[in-house]
Design goal:
The protein is 38% helix and 20% strand. Helix 14 links the parallel strand 9 (315-316) and strand 10 (345-346). The chain folds into 3 domains: 9-297, Aldolase class I (TIM Barrel); 315-387, no CATH class; 415-541, 2-Layer Sandwich (Double Stranded RNA Binding Domain). It is of the alpha/beta class and 551 residues long. It is elongated, with a radius of gyration of 29 Å. The strands form 4 sheets. An 8-stranded parallel beta barrel has the order 1-2-3-4-5-6-7-8, surrounded by 8 helices. A 3-stranded antiparallel sheet has the order 11-12-13, with helices on one face. It has a 3-stranded antiparallel sheet with strand order 14-15-16.
C-alpha cells in the first residue's frame, strides 16, 4: 500500500461498533446494503463485524465473498487469542480466517488494569497474546490492523507497559497501529501529546535491534475515538495533525454509549479545512445522501441539526442572515452545501423579514420585488399565523400554498364543504370493536361528492374518506402515503382544552412534503394538515408548486 503524506485512510466501523448503539439492530441484508453504499462513497476500509460472534456476522461475510465490494477492503474484527491458548489452537480465530478477508483488525489490551482485572492474566502473557495472534494471522496470509484498546488510559497510567504492547504488535507484523480512546474521556490536547509521543517512540525503533530482524518497515498509525466527552471528532483531527493517517469512525456517529467519531464530520473537516485527501470531491458530494440512507436503514430519525449533513446545517432563519446570504453565501456559510451534497434552505418563521419572503419565493420559482404589496401581505399573514401556533419552518408545503394564495396563484383541485367523524368502541370484559367512520362532503369541478370510509382512528378514517372521494378524479392520489404524523400541545397549562399543532409529512414515493394545522380541536388541526397535504400532492403532480426533494 503506497501512502501519500496528505492521504487519510478512512476506516468505517458502522456495521460493528456503530451497531452497538442502544436501540440499533441490523439484519444481514441491512449490513449488505450499507456496505455497498459505503463502497460507492469511496471508504477504503469497511469493518463488517466479528465473524463467529453471532450467526448474522458469519452469514454477512459468506454473502460478501459471493459478491465482493468494488473498491473497499472488507475487514473482519476480533480480539487477541485467549490467555494460555496458542493462537493456532484457539477456535475463536478459525471463523476469522473463514471470513476470507485480506485484512483483519485485532484489538488487544494496552492498559495494565484491563490485563490484570479484565483478562485475569499477567502482563507478559498479554504481550505474548498480541504477538502470537498477529503472527498467526500473518502466517495465514492476512494483513493486520492492530487496535490498541484503552490506549490513552493505558499510556497515562503505565506508559512503559503501554509502549511495550505496541512493540509487540510491530514485531509480529501489524501494518497499522490504531490508538483507541475507548472510554472517550481524553481531550484533544492530551490526544495530540500522546499520539506525538507514541509515534516518535515507534518510529525511533530500529528493526534489527528493537523490533525483529524480519521486520523491514514500521507500521502506519491510526486513531479511534469515542464521543463520551463530545470531543470524538476534535480528537480524531488532533491525532491526524500529529501524524495519524487512518481515522476510524461511523456514519452519523453511531456507537455504544455516546457514539464514535462521526465520519460525516471527520471527512469534510479533513478535506475542506485541513487539505487532506479522504475521498474524491464527487464522492464527498454523496455524503448527505449516505448519511440519510443509513439513518433510514437503522430506523433512526436523521439529526436535522447535524453539522454538514443535517437538514438545518445550511438553514437561514433571521432576516439579516437571509439578506446577507442572498448577496454572498460566505457571510453565513463555512463551506458550500453542495460540497457535501446538502442544500441551502431559507427558513420561514415569525422572525422572518422581507428578505426571507423574497428568497423563499425564489426557491418556489416565484420572482417577487421587495416593493410588491404582496410581500408585506405574505409577511403579515405569516406572523399572525405563527402567533396562533403555526410553524411554517417545518411545513414548507403549507407556506407555499399560503404564498400562492396571496399571489392569486393557488389552484384548488377540490374544496371540502364539511366532514363528520364517529368513533365507536364496544366494550365488555375486553374491547370487542374499536373503529372510526368519517363522512366528507366536497366539490370537484363543480360536482358535489359525498363519501364515507372507516379507519382504525379518526384521522385515518378522514384521510380514507377524502381519498375515496377524490380518487375517481385524481387517480394519482393512490400513490400518496403518510410518512410522519406529529402532534404538539402548544399551551400545556390548558389541559385537554390546549391548542394543538399537527404536522403531517406525506410522500408520493419520490418526493416528500410537510403540511401543518392548528386548532383547539386535535381532529380539526389534523383535518387542516391532511387536506393541505392532499392538495399539495395533487398540485405537485400538475407541477404548480416547485418540486420538493426527498428529505
Amino acid at each position: 500500500m503506497t501512502l501519500d503524506h496528505r492521504q487519510i485512510w478512512i476506516y468505517d466501523t458502522t456495521l460493528r461498533d456503530g451497531a452497538q448503539r442502544e436501540g440499533l439492530s441490523l439484519s444481514t441484508e441491512d449490513k449488505i446494503r450499507i456496505a455497498r453504499h459505503l463502497d460507492r462513497l469511496g471508504i477504503p476500509f469497511i469493518e463488517g463485524g466479528w465473524p463467529g460472534a453471532n450467526p448474522k456476522d458469519v452469514q454477512f461475510f459468506w454473502q460478501m465473498q459471493e459478491a465482493p465490494l468494488q473498491q473497499a477492503e472488507l475487514v473482519a474484527f476480533c480480539s487477541t487469542r485467549r490467555p494460555g491458548i496458542p493462537a493456532a489452537e484457539d477456535t475463536m480465530l478459525q471463523p476469522i480466517l473463514a471470513a476470507g478477508t485480506h485484512w483483519v483488525t485485532i484489538f488487544g489490551k494496552s492498559w495494565d488494569l484491563h490485563v490484570t482485572e479484565g483478562l485475569k492474566t499477567t502482563l507478559d502473557e498479554n504481550l505474548e497474546m498480541i504477538r502470537d495472534t498477529i503472527a498467526y494471522l500473518r502466517a495465514n496470509g492476512r494483513r493486520v490492523i492492530y487496535d490498541a484498546e484503552h490506549w490513552f488510559d493505558g499510556y497515562k497510567h503505565h506508559r512503559e507497559y503501554a509502549l511495550k504492547t505496541l512493540e509487540a504488535a510491530i514485531a509480529a507484523g501489524a501494518e497499522w497501529l490504531v490508538f483507541c480512546d475507548t472510554n472517550g474521556g481524553t481531550l484533544p490536547t492530551e490526544i495530540a501529546h500522546i499520539v506525538q509521543a507514541a509515534i516518535a517512540h515507534c518510529t525511533g525503533l530500529t528493526p534489527d535491534r528493537d523490533v525483529s530482524p524480519t521486520r523491514l518497515y514500521l507500521p502506519q498509525f491510526g486513531i479511534h475515538t469515542h464521543n463520551d466527552s463530545d470531543t470524538a471528532v476534535a480528537n480524531a483531527l488532533a491525532a491526524v495533525m500529529e501524524g495519524a493517517t487512518m481515522v476510524q469512525g461511523t456514519i452519523n456517529g453511531y456507537g455504544e454509549r455516546c457514539g464514535n467519531a462521526n465520519l460525516c464530520s471527520v471527512i469534510p473537516n479533513l478535506q475542506t479545512k485541513l487539505g487532506y485527501q479522504c475521498i474524491t470531491e464527487s464522492q464527498m458530494s454523496q455524503l448527505t445522501e449516505v448519511s440519510r440512507f443509513v439513518s433510514e436503514v437503522v430506523n433512526l430519525a436523521p439529526d436535522d441539526h447535524a453539522p454538514f449533513v443535517g437538514l438545518s446545517a445550511f438553514a437561514h432563519k433571521g432576516g439579516i442572515h437571509v439578506s446577507a446570504v442572498a448577496r454572498n453565501p460566505l457571510t453565513y456559510e463555512h463551506i458550500q452545501p453542495e460540497q457535501v451534497g446538502n442544500r441551502r434552505r431559507i427558513v420561514i418563521s415569525d422572525q422572518a423579514g422581507l428578505s426571507n419572503i423574497l428568497a423563499k419565493a425564489r426557491s418556489f420559482g416565484i420572482e417577487l420585488e421587495k416593493q410588491d404589496p404582496a410581500c408585506r401581505e405574505i409577511l403579515q399573514r405569516l406572523k399572525v399565523l405563527e402567533s396562533e401556533g403555526y410553524q411554517f419552518e417545518a411545513a414548507e408545503a403549507s407556506f407555499e400554498l399560503l404564498m400562492r394564495e396571496a399571489l392569486g396563484q393557488r389552484s384548488r383541485p377540490f374544496e371540502v364543504k364539511g366532514f363528520q367523524v364517529h368513533y365507536d368502541m364496544i366494550t365488555g370484559q375486553q374491547i370487542l370493536c374499536a373503529n372510526s367512520l368519517a363522512t366528507v362532503k366536497l366539490t370537484v369541478d363543480g360536482q358535489d361528492i359525498l363519501e364515507a370510509a372507516e379507519g382504525n382512528g379518526p384521522v385515518a378514517a378522514l384521510d380514507a374518506a377524502l381519498r375515496k372521494a377524490l380518487i375517481n378524479f385524481y387517480p394519482e392520489i393512490a400513490a400518496f402515503y403518510l410518512t410522519d404524523y406529529k402532534v404538539r400541545i402548544l399551551d400545556g397549562t390548558a389541559g385537554t382544552s390546549a391548542k394543538t399543532r399537527v404536522l403531517i409529512e406525506s410522500s408520493n414515493g419520490s418526493q416528500r412534503w410537510t403540511t401543518v394545522g392548528v386548532s383547539g380541536n386535535i381532529l380539526e388541526a389534523s383535518y387542516y394538515a391532511v387536506v393541505e397535504g392532499l392538495e399539495y400532492g395533487l398540485c405537485l403532480q400538475h407541477q404548480t408548486p416547485t418540486t420538493l426533494p426527498m428529505r
